[in-house]
Specification:
The structure holds 2 protein chains of 2 kinds.
Chain A lengths: L2 H23 L6 H26 L7 H23 L6 H23 L5
Chain B lengths: L11 H27 L4 H22 L3 H27 L20 H17 L5
Classes of the chains: A mainly alpha, B mainly alpha.
Chain lengths: 121, 136
């Protein structure tokens, strides 16, 4: 884990949540702008997951390695699932669904940071 | 009951289903890891986590589904959830020694930003609101 990258991801997730909420307030259903915003954050998440997984395979051992790897998997699955669920909604509430997924994503990334502490690397 | 009732899983309800799905995942994954790796440290707390996970899964299914059976399932699961968070919240505050390890519902869900306490209240209000006939 690189803490700078993780904190950037928490900020990105926060921005995504805000974007989703604003589109809900404006009455716009989830569409292409949402898909684009999610893909940007998702690309960084995948990069982080690959980096972290590479370090674990290189021998870094977070105290609870299994839990860490489960959170790592959840971190890359959450937003695409949220986006799909949001786009199935034809009303304004799709954006709020993305906001829920984005907030959860921020919490998952913070949890990854905590779990990584003590991994040495 | 289902006649004229609005589906619970779309519109604003989809946001509720999303939050429920997250808690279903979080509570059952957490319980799974705890039961698999350190069940004997705190069997009561970990079994309660697992129970909470099942309740969230059933509530998610009930709210996301359509029809009379789904609505009945949602009502039952959300009511059990509310009772669960109140009982476990009170018990963990009054008898902290019996709850050495936290569950989702410990301290009324304080470890999860009080969401476990607020969620069933929203769930019940939403079920009541969507359950009314649309022409009524």
């Amino acid at each position: 884990m690189i803490s700078g990258l993780a904190f950037a991801l928490v900020a990105l997730a926060g921005a995504l949540a805000l974007f989703g909420l604003v589109t809900t307030l404006l009455g716009r259903p989830a569409g292409r702008p949402h898909a684009l915003a999610v893909s940007v954050v998702e690309a960084v998440l995948v990069a982080q997951a690959l980096l972290a997984a590479a370090r674990v395979f290189a021998g870094a051992r977070p105290p609870e390695t299994e839990t860490f790897l489960i959170y790592l998997m959840v971190s890359v699955c959450l937003l695409p699932l949220g986006l799909q669920f949001a786009r199935a909604e034809e009303t304004r509430w799709g954006g709020a669904v993305i906001a829920v997924a984005a907030v959860a994503e921020g919490i998952v990334v913070l949890r990854l940071l905590t779990l990584w502490a003590g991994a040495g690397g | 009951m289902a006649d004229g009732a609005r589906p619970t899983g779309s519109g604003m309800g989809r946001v509720l289903v999303a939050v429920y799905a997250l808690f279903a995942l979080a509570a059952s994954a957490r319980a799974g890891v705890q039961l698999a790796t350190r069940f004997y440290e705190a069997p009561l707390a970990y079994l309660l986590s697992a129970f909470a996970g099942v309740v969230y899964i059933l509530a998610t299914a009930g709210l996301a589904g359509r029809g009379r059976m789904a609505r009945r399932l949602a009502w039952t699961a959300v009511l059990i959830e509310l009772i669960g968070v109140l009982v476990v919240g009170t018990a963990s505050t009054a008898l902290p020694a019996d709850f050495p390890r936290a569950t989702v519902w410990s301290g009324y869900g304080v470890g999860y930003g009080w969401v476990p306490l607020v969620l069933p209240i929203f769930g019940l209000l939403w079920l009541r609101r969507t359950g009314r006939r649309q022409d009524g």
